[in-house]
Amino acid sequence: MRSAIISIEGAPGVGKSTIAAALARHGAFVVPEVNQLFAKPNPEPPDWYYDRQNARWEMAQLKAAQGRLAVLDGDPFQPIWFSWIFQDQNWPPISDAVEFYRRRIADDRMEFPSLYVFAWIAEAERRERMLARERSRGLEEGGALRKTAHYARMVEPQRRFFTALADRFPGWVSFVETRSLDETLAGVRAAQKRTARMDGLEALNFIAEWTAKNSSNA
Question: What is residue 189's predicted lDDT score, i.e. its pLDDT?
Answer without folding.
Answer: 86
